[in-house]
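#lab-general

N.A. 3:47 PM
ok so I finally got the sequence cleaned up, no stray characters, all 75 residues accounted for. can someone with queue access submit it? mine expired

B.Y. 3:52 PM
send it over

N.A. 3:53 PM
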Amino acid sequence: MYILKPIMEAPKLSALYHLACARSQEILVDLYEDLHDSKGLPMHDDADWVKSRIQKAVKEIRTELSLINSAIEEL
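B.Y. 4:20 PM
back already:
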């Protein structure tokens, strides 16, 4: 268990966790929607586009999770 320094109080750290996780969830929802056409059918015609879109989502999620890592390193 970490003892929080005054720099990063527990409520502030919790809010940061929430923000990063909420953004990550939004990224995944956007990915899910992007992987389906307007009729709700899964996209499969362009495998390269699908792979590229997944890579973009992974990069965005890693950015959000690095926010948490940075906060933890400040402890």
